[in-house]
Amino acid sequence: MTRDGLVRALTRGRGRGLGSDVAIARSLGIEPKVPDPTRPMRPAAVLVPLVDRPEGLQVLLTRRTDHLAHHAGQVSFPGGRMEDDDDGPVACALREAEEETGLPSSCVDVLGFLDDYVTVTSFRVVPVVGLVAPPFTLRPDPFEVAEVFEVPLAFLLDPANHQRVDRAGEGKRPYYAMPYGRHYIWGATAGMLINLFRVLRD
User: What is the DSSP secondary-structure string of 40-86?
Assistant: First the structure.
């Protein structure tokens, strides 16, 4: 897919996504626990980095270190909560990506956005899609990032690789998972990738 094709798909596809953990669960036929309506939504942003490799587009992901207080060991996009100094979600996503992985902002061509994604933990996440041009050198933050790796976009867009996982029990919720080798992609990250699939599938 060309750069212009990606931009057109992202522009055309706004509103097609399942924009929350709750919507993902409902799409799987389960009525989930919803976020506390009295808790204010906290703004955040992530970078969805599409790396332009000769063999095809790759999605750059991180695996969080095991000692973190939240989401330890999980696969995620680089990103985090917006800070007062951030000039919007693009600035936040690029800053966080550079802090976490060392990916220079100068290597990222911002193409557009996926639908905002609301988590059950009351974050409203803006997924910023960027085309990343090699070569680049990564320097992951060893405190926060255990590993940076790439997954072929074609793999993530193949519905055969979209597993539906139903966790029963109090406080549990169903989710999508996309296992790739020894990496288990699930939760909000997989939800955003499902949204990317819904945008690009046409």
Answer: PPEEEEEEEEEEEETTEEEEEEEEE-TT-SSSTT-EE-SEEE--TT-
